[in-house]
Design goal:
This protein has 6 helices and no strands. The protein is mainly α. It has one domain (27-121). This is Tick transposon.
């Protein structure tokens, strides 16, 4: 068992990243940094932080369910822009399909959604 296989946070990364290669969709934006966190399983959602400290788990934006990476990226209806119906978590995280293709539209939407969520969570934290 490799060191990566022992880390549950890296399960999505293990499944989606089969080779070492530069990903050209990283552009030094806040959305890119947050997408990197999501891909590596350490996006600082309320559910993630609740594992380490006493934190509410309800979504900052909708308040209706647990704020998980999946919820932020593809489920929450109060985060904009809307994700296209049928977009998988794998696509939203920027992993390639079986043919080696990226869904660049889904990646850009993911980065914008993450930026929106991040700003909302910062705004609510300051009140």
């Amino acid at each position: 068992m490799t060191a990566m296989e022992k880390k549950p946070a890296l399960s999505n990364y293990r499944k989606g990243k089969n080779e070492i290669r530069r990903e050209r969709f990283y552009d030094n934006s806040r959305g890119s940094a947050l997408l990197f966190e999501a891909r590596s399983g350490c996006l600082r959602t309320r559910s993630y932080k609740a594992r380490f400290c006493n934190e509410e788990e309800q979504c900052t934006c909708c308040g209706g369910t647990k704020e998980t990476m999946e919820h932020v990226l593809i489920e929450c209806g109060d985060i904009h822009p809307d994700i296209r119906v049928g977009t998988s978590l794998h696509e939203a995280l920027g992993f390639r399909d079986n043919n080696g293709k990226l869904n660049t539209s889904a990646i850009e939407i993911s980065k914008r959604r993450l930026e929106y969520w991040w700003q909302k969570s910062r705004d609510k934290g300051q009140k």
